[in-house]
Design a protein that fits this description.
210 residues; HhH-GPD domain-containing protein; single chain
Length: 210
């Protein structure tokens, strides 16, 4: 199914969201199903078990990066970068980021000091801890919500967050809806469903951390 971002029918959004797990499975990528389980279920639980001072470890960041790259485009150097980070550095940066919420701009800046971590990866970290505030900055959802999936700046992410938060609030007025992260997953599911049979275009241009 196609999903127009302007759509205000909550049942249409729920249908899109309900197809998420089957879309993950349909990609037939090694370990993606287990990585997605780790990212959406296990990692949030681990982080919240560490309240009131939640933090991320290097191992967890590495697994998160594997999930992000498996669900999107594989960029092996990013995985190498984050896997080589010292645990104390990752712990410190993530702890500061989580404490910065709900100031998303500050939280992203705290995380992007880490080598290999750009706004998109930072958004995945924040979404794991606070999915009701910060959605993951996926190419697919960015394309539908903003019409542009190639701008990975903090400014673009904040615009993306605002749009998804507003859409989430709109849907909550119509029925049961969790938050902006479910908007992202619904958009991703529909985009993957409509493009999975098409060959992926090769990317060009400058390499940048995401």
């Amino acid at each position: 199914m196609e999903l127009d971002f302007k759509c205000s029918d909550i049942e249409t959004w729920k249908e899109a969201l309900s197809s998420y797990e089957s879309r993950i499975e349909s990609l037939n990528k090694p370990d993606l199903v287990s990585l997605d389980q780790f990212y959406r279920v296990n990692l949030p639980s681990l982080l919240h078990d560490r309240d009131p001072n939640p933090y991320l470890t290097t191992s967890e960041l590495s697994q998160l990066m594997k999930w992000k790259l498996s669900r999107g485009k594989w960029r092996p150097r990013l995985l190498d970068f984050v896997s080589s980070l010292e645990d104390s550095v990752v712990k410190s940066a993530s702890e500061k980021a989580f404490k910065s919420l709900p100031d998303i701009s500050k939280a992203v800046k705290e995380l992007t000091v880490l080598k290999g971590v750009g706004p998109a990866t930072a958004s995945a970290v924040l979404a794991a801890y606070a999915p009701d505030i910060a959605p993951f900055m996926s190419d697919e959802a960015m394309e539908v919500a903003l019409g542009n999936s190639k701008d990975y700046t903090l400014k673009q992410y904040l615009l993306f967050v605002t749009k998804l938060q507003e859409k989430s609030k709109e849907l909550k007025l119509k029925g049961e809806w969790d938050g902006p992260s479910d908007i992202e997953r619904a958009l991703w599911s529909c985009t993957v469903r409509s493009t999975k049979s098409q060959p992926e275009k090769s990317s060009s241009g400058k390499k940048r951390k995401r």
